[in-house]
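note to self — DONT lose this again. spent like an hour looking for the file last time. sequence + predicted structure for the chain T wanted, 295 res
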Amino acid sequence: QVRQAVLQLETKVLPQNRSYAHHHLEANCVSAMRDFLNEISDGEIHRQLAGSRDPDTVRAIQWQVFSSHPFVAFISDLFFGRLHDRPIDQYFAILEPVRLREQLQTVRMPGGQGLAGAPITIIEIPGEEPPGVSTVSRIFSVLFFSFFFLVAGAATLAKRGWPVRVLGGTLLGWSAFSTLVGVGYLFFFLFSSMKETHSNELMGVFIVTDLCLLIPAWRLFRSGVLASPHRFITFYIRLRFLLLSLLCVGRMAGVLIQQPGSLTWMAWGVFLSLILAALPAPHWSRIRRMGLSRV
């Protein structure tokens, strides 16, 4: 097996064999090493690891890899769909060097000896440990709650006579961001060869058609006057709220599994706030008398 490994490595390092079609899950530097060692060991790695479900998903591994780069983690969560949240086995989960090192130590060859021993530290770079998955999760939670309460508070304050530019600015930011992400979804769906970017449940959260909210939001931000919205805008907001409500029901029922779920609930809260802000004054007065404005 050692001679076979040496011969294959000598072949693989030739200039004509160095390149390969990269895929972030199925064909990266770690998965290539995993498959090479599995071939050398006559499939022993696959036999022992493929039958066991890994406790993490690809998205959890993704959070670990990008734990010190929360912005990259956020962008990855936006554009990689539900395939990153499906259950995976321990063989497929070997996607980065740490997992390769740990899992190879658990594999036993037919003679009983381990495939790999414990790692030996050759050099250690001092420094602070990068933040873990919990840090990335807290960032999403902060984004969710801060944005929801900003819009809900702006809608409430607008009805109490406070400057409505806060509501207009918030709606302007939402519609611009949603439109931009929606354009990205459309681009990946039409032109990307990565299937992980196609089945994206957030396509119903961030939609290109939110572009129609940009002009009303800009006027609201500039004038500071909460005028009666156009019938089409009112219909569109209600339609978006209905769609987001269905997405939330699907998430609670377990039909929709893509993480982080906070983005769906955030969008639902935004359009609920817009509906409350668009209520005529008599309806809002009735709600305030019921005491719901204090929620």
